[in-house]
């Protein structure tokens, strides 16, 4: 039984006992008083009647007249006159009880009335005596009325007291409930603060709890800052703050192999002209400032809202990984970047007519990393041969282009006829046992042809179809779970969790598959959230009602957001594959991943590694504390199992 219920019960019993005690004492006192009054009435009336009879004639008629006159007042149960020999000469009785008083009350509270006597004299001789008993009917009526009024007053008082106690308990329960919610959240490693209540004792407790939460959050912020420092040391160029060569190559490898990434794109290789000459003429400090300015201009020149990666590969070389860029976009970006760099020449750092060259190479999913870099380098050489501030395009390896209208028709037809399949990729634990399958949509535009998610999802995003496609993916996953019980992870686009129509359709869909919904793992790309984690909280609240899990994939690109992990109620993280590449040889990334795992453990999150290729990488990840993996190695190991 809860403390508040015990308090309520104590107050109720105390009020009831107080009422019963007061009622009993009140009735006992009233009964005693009334008995004394009845006894006095009997004695006084007997003396008065005896005196009257002594002064009158002693004949029977006069005696009866005097007795009847007093008896007819109705206040007496019995009046009797006896002669000196004890014979009853006159007697009047009224044994009727009051109709206003319940019989049970009379039995419960009996009144004992003693008879009053008076001696009747005839001169100096005794003529007889009067025996008189007052009727207790009026006393019972008075006692009953008093008891009833006392009951009503006590009941009203009890109701008012109960209302006051109820209000008090509600007032106390609110901060107690908030305190319980906070304690439960902290137990689940969700660190929240609550407003301090007006109850002095609880205020001290809440203040201490909030102080603890603030200190924990401050510790998380410090850890996030430390992780950001580690990331900078391991994956950022010290001069420009841009990603370095190792990080860029890791992202490139992951993009070429990831079925969920855009199926095409471009690699832009940018080389500054005569950096060595600038260094000699301006000095190292000025040359470093020039390089920093170039990095800032290139970053500002990239299109907003695109998951494009700019990195500095070495002294004079920069690179851009432009996912989902077609020929026109890549060419426009190359031209725009060259124009952005012209501002630097106006500052006197170099000549405007020859500041940089750009080589552009195009890729499809599955392209060879080395061949792509070589193609970009060859295009760069052609650009340098063309003169100052030039760009050149490499060979365009692409499938027959599909127009926007045709894409819309393909997607509309697929949604109408559910022309989709699911591709699955295993995620294994430390013992290489299955954690779940990560499933991705594949679209079948016609018989014998399948398009990967990276091929049609970008176009679906342009037409606003991502929410519908994600609902299809969830439905297909649930249908598969009805046939087999191995957990499935479904990728949800960041656009969908901001789509009111998607969020409204999700609960009914999961309710239809409630028996398997707990086997679903939902994951959202960290980049697409853009730091707006409240959308993820809303989505997480919906799916958790059905027992589903929620996580973030490609985690690691926004480490400054790590403190938010404790407010998101997540279940797992998938570390971005760019940090996993050759991690067995990257001491900096090992330190970085170790720090991330420490924070994730504090938040109670499962940490999984993406794009694991080699056994050496996996052994290093296990040593660092990673709890699972996905990627080519996981696929091979699961196949062996």
Give a description of the structure.
- The chain is of the alpha/beta class.
- The protein has three domains: 3-159, Translation Initiation Factor IF3, CATH 3.30.110; 243-393, Reverse transcriptase/Diguanylate cyclase domain (Alpha-Beta Plaits, 2-Layer Sandwich); 404-640, TIM Barrel.
- 54% of the residues lie in helices and 18% in strands.
- It is built from 20 helices and 18 strands.
- It has helices at 3-55, 60-71, 103-108, 137-187, 200-235, 245-257, 275-282, 284-301, 327-346, 369-386, 404-417, 453-463, 466-483, 500-512, 514-517, 526-529, 534-544, 587-602, 615-624, 632-640, and strands at residues 76-83, 88-93, 116-122, 125-134, 264-272, 309-312, 317-323, 356-364, 391-393, 420-429, 434-446, 449-451, 488-492, 520-525, 549-555, 572-575, 606-609, 628-629.
- The strands form three sheets. Strands 10-11-13-14-15-16-17-18 form an eight-stranded mixed barrel, surrounded by six helices.
- Strand 11 (434-446) and strand 12 form a beta hairpin.
- This is EAL domain-containing protein.
């Amino acid at each position: 039984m809860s403390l508040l219920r015990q308090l309520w019960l104590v107050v109720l019993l105390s009020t009831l006992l107080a009422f019963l005690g007061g009622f009993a004492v009140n009735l006992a006192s009233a009964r005693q008083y009334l008995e004394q009054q009845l006894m006095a009435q009997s004695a006084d009336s007997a003396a008065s009647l005896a005196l009257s009879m002594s002064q009158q004639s002693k004949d029977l008629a006069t005696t009866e007249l005097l007795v009847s006159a007093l008896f007819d007042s109705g206040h007496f149960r019995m009046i009797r006159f006896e002669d000196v020999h004890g014979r009853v000469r006159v007697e009047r009785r009224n044994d009727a009880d009051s109709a206003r008083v319940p019989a049970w009350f009379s039995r419960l509270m009996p009144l004992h009335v003693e008879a009053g006597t008076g001696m009747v004299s005839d001169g100096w001789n005794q003529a007889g005596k009067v025996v008189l008993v007052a009727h207790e009917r009026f006393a019972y009526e008075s006692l009953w009325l008093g008891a009833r009024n006392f009951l009503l007053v006590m009941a009203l008082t009890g109701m008012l007291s109960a209302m006051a106690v109820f209000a008090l308990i509600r007032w106390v329960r609110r901060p107690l409930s908030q305190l319980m919610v906070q304690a439960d959240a902290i137990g689940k490693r969700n660190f929240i603060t609550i407003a301090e209540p007006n109850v002095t004792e609880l205020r001290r407790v809440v203040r201490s709890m909030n102080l603890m939460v603030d200190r924990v959050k401050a510790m998380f912020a410090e850890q996030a800052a430390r992780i950001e420092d580690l990331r900078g040391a391991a994956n950022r160029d010290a001069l420009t703050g841009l990603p370095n060569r190792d990080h860029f190559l890791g992202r490139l490898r992951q993009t070429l192999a990831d079925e969920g990434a855009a199926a095409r794109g471009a690699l832009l290789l940018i080389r500054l002209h005569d950096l060595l000459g600038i260094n000699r003429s301006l000095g190292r400090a000025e040359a470093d400032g020039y390089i920093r300015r170039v990095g800032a201009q290139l970053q500002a020149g990239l299109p907003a809202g695109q998951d494009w990666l700019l990195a500095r590969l070495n002294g004079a070389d920069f690179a851009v990984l432009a996912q989902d860029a077609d020929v026109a976009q890549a060419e426009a970006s190359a031209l725009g970047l060259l124009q952005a760099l012209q501002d630097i020449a106006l500052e006197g750092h170099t000549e405007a007519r020859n500041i940089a060259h750009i080589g552009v190479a195009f890729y499809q999913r599955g392209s060879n990393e080395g061949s792509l870099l070589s193609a970009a380098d060859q295009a760069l050489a052609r650009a340098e041969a063309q003169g100052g501030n030039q760009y050149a395009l490499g060979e365009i390896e692409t499938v027959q282009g599909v127009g926007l209208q045709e894409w819309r028709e393909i997607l509309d037809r697929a949604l109408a006829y559910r022309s989709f399949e699911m591709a699955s990729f295993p995620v294994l634990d430390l013992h290489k046992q299955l954690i779940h399958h990560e499933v991705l949509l594949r679209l079948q535009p016609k018989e014998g042809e399948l398009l990967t998610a990276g091929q049609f999802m970008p176009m679906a995003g342009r037409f606003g179809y991502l929410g519908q496609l994600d609902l299809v993916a969830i439905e297909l996953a649930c249908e598969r779970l009805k046939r087999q019980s191995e957990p499935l992870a479904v990728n949800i686009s960041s656009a969908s969790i901001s789509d009111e129509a998607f969020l409204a359709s999700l609960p009914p869909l999961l309710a239809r598959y409630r028996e398997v919904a707990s086997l679903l793992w939902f994951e959202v790309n960290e980049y697409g959230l853009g730091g707006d984690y409240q959308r993820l909280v809303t989505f997480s609240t919906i799916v958790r009602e059905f027992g589903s899990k929620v996580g973030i994939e490609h985690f690691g690109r926004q480490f400054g957001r790590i403190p938010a992990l404790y407010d998101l109620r997540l279940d797992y993280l998938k570390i971005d594959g760019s940090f996993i590449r050759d991690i067995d040889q990257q001491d900096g990334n090992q330190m970085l991943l170790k720090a991330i795992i420490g924070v994730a453990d504090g938040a109670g999150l499962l940490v999984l590694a993406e794009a694991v290729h080699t056994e050496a990488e996996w052994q290093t990840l296990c040593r660092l504390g990673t709890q699972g993996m996905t990627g080519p190695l996981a696929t091979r190991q699961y196949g062996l199992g």
